[in-house]
Amino acid sequence: MLYFENDYCEGAHPALLQQLLTTNMEKLPGYGTDSYSSLAKEKIRQACNCPQADIFFLVGGTQTNAVIISSLLQKYEGVIAASTGHISIHEAGAIESTGHKVLQIPHRKGKICPQSLQNYLQTFYQDANHNHMVFPGMVYISHPTEYGTLYTKSELSRISAVCRHYKIPLYLDGARLGYGLASEAANITLPDIAALTDIFYIGGTKIGALCGEAAVFPNKAPAHFITMVKQQGALLAKGRLLGIQFDALFTDDLYLKISKNAIKTADKLKTALKAKGYRLYLDSSTNQIFVILENTQMETLRQSVTFSFWETYDPTHTIVRFATSWATKMEDIDAFIELL
Amino acid sequence: MLYFENDYCEGAHPALLQQLLTTNMEKLPGYGTDSYSSLAKEKIRQACNCPQADIFFLVGGTQTNAVIISSLLQKYEGVIAASTGHISIHEAGAIESTGHKVLQIPHRKGKICPQSLQNYLQTFYQDANHNHMVFPGMVYISHPTEYGTLYTKSELSRISAVCRHYKIPLYLDGARLGYGLASEAANITLPDIAALTDIFYIGGTKIGALCGEAAVFPNKAPAHFITMVKQQGALLAKGRLLGIQFDALFTDDLYLKISKNAIKTADKLKTALKAKGYRLYLDSSTNQIFVILENTQMETLRQSVTFSFWETYDPTHTIVRFATSWATKMEDIDAFIELL
Amino acid sequence: MLYFENDYCEGAHPALLQQLLTTNMEKLPGYGTDSYSSLAKEKIRQACNCPQADIFFLVGGTQTNAVIISSLLQKYEGVIAASTGHISIHEAGAIESTGHKVLQIPHRKGKICPQSLQNYLQTFYQDANHNHMVFPGMVYISHPTEYGTLYTKSELSRISAVCRHYKIPLYLDGARLGYGLASEAANITLPDIAALTDIFYIGGTKIGALCGEAAVFPNKAPAHFITMVKQQGALLAKGRLLGIQFDALFTDDLYLKISKNAIKTADKLKTALKAKGYRLYLDSSTNQIFVILENTQMETLRQSVTFSFWETYDPTHTIVRFATSWATKMEDIDAFIELL
Amino acid sequence: MLYFENDYCEGAHPALLQQLLTTNMEKLPGYGTDSYSSLAKEKIRQACNCPQADIFFLVGGTQTNAVIISSLLQKYEGVIAASTGHISIHEAGAIESTGHKVLQIPHRKGKICPQSLQNYLQTFYQDANHNHMVFPGMVYISHPTEYGTLYTKSELSRISAVCRHYKIPLYLDGARLGYGLASEAANITLPDIAALTDIFYIGGTKIGALCGEAAVFPNKAPAHFITMVKQQGALLAKGRLLGIQFDALFTDDLYLKISKNAIKTADKLKTALKAKGYRLYLDSSTNQIFVILENTQMETLRQSVTFSFWETYDPTHTIVRFATSWATKMEDIDAFIELL
After folding, report:
1. What mean pLDDT is reported for chain C?
2. Which of A122, A270, B211, C319 has the largest CB neighbor count within 10 A?
3. What number is the average pLDDT over the span B230-241?
4. Taking CA atoms, what residue in C is nearest to A100?
C-alpha cells in the first residue's frame, strides 16, 4: 500500500528523535523554561530576522489557533477567516467554544482577497447597526492554505496594510509553513511574514516533529499569555519535548531542507497526473494535490493507495487529496505513477 | 415627524398597561410563579391547542434565542440558521458567546429552503471528516423572517420533517409572530406551529408589550431550564410584569387583533409605494417594507419620516425599511403617502 | 396572610407607573437612546456628584453582575467575592458561565474584611506558581450585603485603597442600595460610592421599579460596552421602560424617600422581635431581618406570614429572613407583631 | 545540583523512547486510530479488568480534566472538588473557562471526606433556593491527592456510593496514579478504581512518558466525545505518540514497576528526614514529601538541591515539596541525605 493520505503519517525526522534520545536523562525545568526551548527560540528569532519576538511552543494546530485567537480578541470581537479556513470548518467549533464568532468571508482557492477584506471592514463600519454585530477584531489566514495555495508577497502586503489601517492583528496559520517556504512558487520568506503579520505559527507536526507548533509574536505577546495557554490545557509539563524538536528543526536549516522533499515529490506526482490526463481541482504549488476522480476509478485506486476524501464534486465524481511530506520517498512516487 | 423606524417605538398597548395598574399593589411571588403568569400560560396553551406545553416568559428576543439555543444544544453541536437570520448577524455574537457556532446556510428572501436544509445535513453526515466538524444540532428559523416574509404551511411541514428525520429540534423565532399570523398571506396558525416545531417563542416586545417573549415547548422543556434561564441573567424577579402582559395579550384574542392593525397600515403603504413607482427590494406580506431609494431621495425623505437603514444597494442607492406596528395610525400612513 | 418573603412582591411605586402611563404613546428611539433615559442619567450623575459618569440601564441584578464582570475581566482573571456574595452562590453560576472564576474569600457578616483582601492579593503574588492560577482581576462587594449589613466609610475606603494599589477595579452591587443609603446606620453616600469604587449599580427592582438597575461607571465604561450588553441579551429594545422609571426615581429624591419606609418598618419589627425574645442570627441595619426559629415555631408562623428559608441552623432550628420594602405598610408590621 | 523539584524533569523511560524509535517510520493513520493505540487500549482494559472500557489518550493533565469535566457536565451543573484539588487552584481557571463552576468543599489532607460530600449534596437539595444555584453534577477526586495522600478502599467505596445515590459521576484524576498503586500503603487496585468510578485517567506524563494521559470510561464515553476532544484542541494528529508510549507502559507491568522506584526513593528520604528531626507538614505515602523548613535553612538547602515552594507556613517558615519519580537514583537520595 502506498500512503498519500496526509502529511503526518510518520513519526519524527530522525535528527529530532536522536536529539530527544541524547538529552533524555538531563534534568530540566518544566513548562518551556528549559535551555533547549531557549535555544530553539533564539534560532527561530534569527531565522525570522526578528530579535525581539516572543515565542511559545504549543502542541497542535487547533489548540494553537484557539489559544491565540481567544487570547487576542476582545469579548465583542470575532475573527475574519476564509469560508474554507481550517478554523471555519475543521476544528469542531474550537473558536466558538471560546465565545467568539468566526466571521466567514468568501475565498479564492482558499485565499482571502485583500479587496474583499477591505470591503468587509468598510461595510461593517458603515452599517448603522454595527453596534449590534460582532466586531471584526482579527484576521486569520493560512499559508499555505487548506488548498495548498500560497499568498504572493504583494497579496500579503495588501492584507497587512488593510489590517493595520483598521488596527486589527493579522494572524497567519503556518501549519504547513515549511512547504510554503520551500515551494518553487514561493516569494515570501520567514522575515517577510514576521514583518507583515502580528502573530503566526511555524508548524512542526506536519514537518518533521512528533508534535509541536511555534507561535511567534514578532512584537510582543499579550500580558499573561502563558496563563491563558495553561487555562486552555495547552501548557506541556515537559516543554523540553517541543523545545528540543524545534532546536533541531532550526539547526542547519533542517526545517527548510526537509520541506523541500515534500515539494519535489509533489511536483513530480503532479506533473505525472497532468500528463496522464487527470483533472486537478485546482493547481496548488505545495505538498497537497487535489484531483477530481470518477468514483469507480477512485475505488480502484483505493486498493493500492491511501488518500483523503475532500468533497463530493458531482454525483459521479469526488475530489480527493494526495499529500506528500518531508518523509515521502521518491520511489513511492514512482510506484504511484506506475499505477496511474 | 412621522415614525416608521421600527415596531417598538411606543410603550405598551393600553389594555396591558391598565392591567399592570390594576394589579400593581397585589403581593405576588417572584420569578414567574405568580397566578397571572399561570393564567397567561393556560391561555397560551389553549391558543396553541397544546395542553401539555411548557411555557416560560423571558424579557427580550436576543436573550430568548441565546437561552433556548444554548440550553438545547450539546457541547459539540451548533445551530443551523439562514445567513440572514437574526442570530447570524444582529445579536452581537450572543450564540457564539455561549460556545456554539451558528451554521449559516443560504436564504431565499430570508427563508431556509427545505431542500437546502436536507442537503446540508446529508452532506454533513457523508463527509468522512465530520467528526472534526460542528454537528448540526438544531434548526433556527424566524417567522416572519427578518425580511418580513412568511413560510407556507407546506414549507414549514417539510422543514419539520427533515428535522425529525435527523432528530434535531426545530426552533421558530416569533419576535413578530402576531404579524405573521395576521397577514393576509398567512396559512400557518399557532396550533400548526406548536405541532410542527419543538420550541418557539411568541413575541411580545414588538406586539403590544413593554417587553416580554413567551417561550413555548409544545412537548417538554429540558430539565432544569429555569436554572439555565437564571444562569444567563434572564430570570425576572418580578415575573408578574411578563405574566400580566401576556395574560392581557391572550385575553379576547387581543394579540391577533392588534397585530392586524400593523398589517392593514403596511398594506396600504405598500400599495401606495408601488403605485408611485417605488422599487420594493422584495415583496413582504407583513409589517416591514423594504424599499430601494436613490440616496438624495432618501436624504430628502429623512427630513419628514424616520426609517431604518438596511443595507447599501449600490453606490447611489440604499435599501431602507419602513415598519408599521400595532400602534401605527392610519392617519400617519395617509400623511406619509402625501409625502411620496 | 402577611407578606415578608422578599422586597419585590409588589409592582412599581405609583409615581413610576404613572409616568409610564403618561409617556406611553410617545414615539421614542430604542435601546436606551431615548430622552427619558438621558434625563435619568443626568439626574443620577448629579445625585452621585459625578458629572462624567457613564451610565447604562439593565434589567435585573444577576444580568447586571454577569455583564459588568465579564466585560471588565481579562480572560486570565477572576473576581474576588465574599463566600456569601450573591455571585458566589445564588446566581446559578452566571459568572462562571462567562468563563471566569469567582475567587471566594471568607466573610464577616456578609462583608469582605480589608485585611483579608490585602492578604489574599499579597499571598497570590508571592506564590511562585501564580502563573498557573486565576489572577484576581476585580473585587465584588455588595452594599447592603446579602445579610443586610453595611460597610462603613472607613472599611470601604480601605478596600478601595487595596484595589487601587493592585490596580484592579472595585465593583459594588447595589441591588438594595437605597436601603443602605436610608439606614440609620449609614455613613456612606452616593458620592462616596462614586468616588471610592470603579463601577457600581443602583438597584431599581427591589426599590420601587418593575425592573431595572442603573450601572454607573464613575470614570469611563469599557469600549463597546453596549455591544457586550447586547451580546448577553441584556439590551432592552424599549429602553424607555428603564429610563422613565429611573427618571421618576431620581426626581425629588424619591429613591431615598421610599427607601426610608423599608428601614422604618424593619426597625420597628426588629425591635419587637428582640423585645419578645427572638434570636437574631445577626444584627443587620437595613430591610432584611434574619431570625433563628425553632422548627415547629416556624411551621406555625408560616400559616399567617410568608418569609424566606435562609439556611438550616441545626437539626431543630432554621434561619429565616423577613424582608420589608418601600411598599410595606406599618399596619402589616403591627399585625405581624401581634402574632409574635 | 540534586533535583527534587518535581516528577517530570526527565524525558521518557528508555523503553518508551526505544519503541518510538523502532516504530518511527511506520506509516500510521492519525488521531489515535493507529494499531499501537488499539493495542495499548486493550492492555489497559486488561489491567483494569474492564473489557468494555472506552479509552482515549490525551496529552496533559489540565487538558484531560477540562475535556472530561466539560463533556460530562450539563450547562447548569458544576463539579465538586476539594478546596486543594488541582482543578480548584492550579489550572488557571480551566474548568471555569468552559463555563462550569468548581464547587469547593473542605479537604482532609487533600482528600474529600465521604460524609462531607454526603452533607453537601443533602444540604443542596434541601435548600429551597437550589434552583438558583449551581447543581452539583460530578465529583472530582485526585488519587494520590495533591498532598500525596491516598484514599482507602473503604473511603473510595463510600464516596462512590454517595455519587451513585445522587446519580452523579465520580471522576478520579490519576496524574500520579502509578505512585498511588505502588505505595506500601495502597489498598486500591486499578480494577477497584474501574469498578468504583465512572471515569478516571492514568497519568503518563509524571510516570515515564514524554506526555500523555489515558482517560478510561469503565462503562461508556459520552456520545461524540472525540469531537469534544477536538474542539478543545486536545486531539493529537500523531496519536501514535501516545499510543506507542502507553503500549510500552502497559507491557510487562512496566507502569507499576517504574512507579515503585519513586516510592522506594521517597520512603528512604522520608525516613532520613524524620530521623534528622525535620518536620513533615503531613505524612504522605507516595512520592511527594512536604517539609516545613525554617527560611534561612531553606535558602542554604537551595544551593545544593532543587525543590518546590508549596506555601508560606508562617513568617519564618515555608512548606516545601521534595518529589521523587520513576527516574530518581538511589545515589541521589544518599547524596541528599548527606546534606541534611
Report:
1. 97
2. B211
3. 98
4. C231
**Strand A288-294 relative to strand A199-203: parallel, antiparallel, unpaired?**
unpaired
**Cβ atoms of C90 and C114 closer than 8 Å:** no
Given this model, what pLDDT does residue A4 score? 97
Quick one: DSSP state of residue B111? B
Sheet with D288-294, edge to edge strand ranges: D279-282, D288-294, D317-323, D308-314
Whether residue D74 lies within 8 A of chain C, CB to CB, comes out as no
**CA–CA gap between residue A111 and residue A154 (Å, rounded):** 13
CA neighbor of A178 nearest in space, from A205, A207, A156: A207
- Residue B161: pLDDT band with limits 50, 70, 90: very high
pLDDT at residue A282, as a whole number: 92
Residues of B whose CB is below 8 A from A133: 89-90, 92
Q: Give the Cα separation of C210 and C204 in Å (integer).
A: 8
Q: Give contacts of B235 with chain C, Cβ < 8 Å.
A: 60, 62
Interface test with B, best of D76, D77, D98, D228 (most B CBs within 10 A): D76
Q: What's the gap in Å between the CA of C63 and the closest CA on chain B?
A: 4
User: Whole-model pTM?
Assistant: 0.97
Give C71's contacts in chain A (Cβ within 8 Å): 75
What pLDDT does C7 receive?
97
Cα angle for residues B194, B195, B199 (degrees, 5° grid): 45
Q: Taking residues B19-33, what's their average pLDDT?
A: 97
Tens of pLDDT, residue by residue over C177-231, are 999 999 999 999 999 999 999 999 999 999 999 999 999 999 999 999 999 999 9
When CB atoms are compared, the residue of D133, D135, D228 closest to B75 is D228
Rounded Cα–Cα distance for residues D246 and D47 (Å): 12
Cβ contact (<8 Å) for A11 and D24? yes
pLDDT for D28: 96
Q: Which residues of B touch C328 (CB under 8 A)?
A: none
Contacts of B75 in chain A (CB under 8 A): 97
Residues of chain D with pLDDT under 70: none
In single-letter form, the type of residue at position D246 comes to F
Task: Kindly write down the DSSP assignment for every residue of A182-244, as one continuous string.
Answer: HSTT----HHHHHHH-SEEEEE-TTTT-SS-EEEEESS-PPTTHHHHHHHTT---TTTHHHHH
Average pLDDT on B303-326 reads 95
Check if C78 contacts D (Cβ < 8 Å).
yes
**Cα–Cα distance between B256 and B252 in angstroms, integer?**
9
Q: What is the pLDDT of residues B112-152, one digit of tens each?
A: 999 999 999 999 999 989 999 999 999 999 999 999 999 99
